[in-house]
Amino acid sequence: MAILAGQPARQPLLQHILPPPHSVPLAVTAHTATTALGAGLHAQRQALREGRSGLRRNDFGPAPRLDCWIGRVEGLEQVSLPADLSEWESRNHRLAWRALHQDGFLEAAAAAVARHGATRVAVLVGTSTSSIGETEAAYAQQQDGRFPEALARLLVHTPHALGDFVAQVTGARGPCMTVATACSSSAKVFALASRMLQAGLADAAIVGGVDTLCGSVLYGFNALQLVSPDPCRPFDAHRRGLSLGEAGGFALLERDGSQPRGWLCGYGESSDAHHMSAPHPQGLGAQRAMADALARAGLEPDAIGYLNLHGTATPANDSVEAQAVAALFPASLHASSTKGWTGHTLGAAGIVESVLTLLALEDGLLPGTLNSTEPDPACGPQVRMATEHRRIDHAMNNAFGFGGNNCSLVFARA
Amino acid sequence: MTRTTLTAGIEGISLWTAQARSWEAFRALLAGKPSDDATSHAATRPAPALLPPNERRRAPDTVLVALEAAQAACIDAGRDPSTLPSVFVSTYGDLAITEHLCQTLATAPLELSPTRFHNSVHNAAAGYWTIAAGAMEPATALSADFAMGLLEAIAQLLAGAPAVLLVGYDGNAPGLLRQVAPTEGLLGGALVLGPVAPGRPRLSLALLDGQAPEFTAPVAAGNAMAPMLALFQALALGGDATVLPAGPDRVLRVELAYD
Fold first, then answer.
1. What pLDDT digit, counting tens, does each position of B13-64 carry?
2. Inter-chain CB proximity A273 and B249 less than 8 Å
3. Which domains does chain B have, with CATH numbers?
4. Which domain holds residue A217?
5. pTM to 2 decimals?
6. CB spacing of A199 vs B109 below 8 angstroms
7. Is the pLDDT reported for residue A395 higher than 90?
8. Is A136 on the interface with B (CB under 8 A)?
9. How far is CA B93 from CA A179, A208, A209, A361, A393, in A?
10. How far apart are the C-alpha atoms of B122 and B100, rounded to whole Å?
């Protein structure tokens, strides 16, 4: 592989029998994100420009609470879904509903359904915990060994509830899948969409992801000793773990578009084959995902102007990812983690950070790494703490999940 | 509009459920010659050889059944498991873990087990598989109908994968979850799909409007993944087509050929 020239020691481990073929670029004809920074693209842009974090002290759920910081989406408790969707009521679906209604996304999705036909529009969404918050509530409120009637609704107690809900709301009737590969879920949906359109199984794909704060993830990551008592500081030498967040986001992918917002040029996926909750020590899986994404995009590493890192701020992820990036990319790359703004939004991280990557391409604002000041010794010159302004043509987004599940995406400016 | 022929060769096949603990046992059962599996109560969960014994003891049942099916299909296909990208489809993942997490959260959240938490991810089976098989190839975990896994597997073949491992599985809903997540017993089935080749069965897919016909699974009938058995039964009996559910008012028509 040409892109690995000068890295002979690592080459055999990354080599395929055949390199992946170039993929046909797909037009991103609409996109949106709703995070702790606010609802829609304008709120994300403003917070990026101002260097304003969406993290706050943990005020989620009943006291006593874990002493940590969270990226919580404001006001999800005060709204409810329309009456005809009441069977779908959950925090996750309320966030999905709100995210779908930003930036004209629902109208763009409806137009795609009208243009291509409902059965030709796929719904490919990612989540880690879907509506498990409702299942948790049902257990907390159990009476005489039964769930309370109001919570015993069938439609929310499976991960696929999210895919079914988005299909219901958008009217799309093409292939509908919920990808649940932990924190890579809503990055992988772009890869699935690319294949789905290439195979002729659809003419457009609504991709995205939604994950909401719940007891499982707060206390689960706490049990793994990965939650920071302070706001997360990705790639900082003194980082103490992650800050959990919640978010929802969507993108509409088509073969062509009259006014595309950007292009999906390539994807790379891999497995660490190492450990369920710890990354491969040399980041071989991460390197392979990034190398495959470049190969599918037909680009050399120096073509990438911005890399949105997975950068969770856990000790292990950041040092391994920094090394993997240093092994592949020249010193001129501007790479950063945006989790100091949004928190780690788990199954939604892939879509949120793809949207932020698309904004970097649109605006020429390359985010730094909020909250972080002193780079970990493992960081190469690629990892940047300060925001920069520069027009770029191509950008990458990394998302890595439990089970050693990796995905990298390459986007281009429209 | 691009239309591609959605055809693949079936290189390997496997099945595990308590009443039929192998593809051969399933075929025998359908032929009216049930093996001991149908009556014995010895093993209620499989012991996939790929997992080290200590992991086998601790792994969730759904991980065991998925890995058992995956490994048997690779052996049947004569494929090295480390070389295959994989697609794992499960409606619910492991509900015993879900129940344990939710009960612990309701009573003593600070006592949540870190191992149970990382085993609670929907891609637990996919993760354990790639680790045990040493597979750095992509692994995908879906919550959807088995038909969607077939579509993704065939899309991977069309995108250049030499062969793809597809596994469908679900487990038993314990305790309170029976009320909201209807699934019983343990079921895992797997296919290795590859290029069409002479002497190898092949399938062709078409996604259509419609309702899947009523299907009574010959084994594991109460399992959420049992609808996939319509395809496995058709393959066992040499049938020429079957129809699988593929979402609301949508079906996947699967045509089969054996020449």
1. 999 999 999 999 999 999 998 777 666 655 689 999 999 998 898 899 999 9
2. no
3. 9-200+213-238 (3.40.47.10)
4. 26-413
5. 0.96
6. no
7. yes
8. yes
9. 12, 21, 19, 38, 40
10. 15
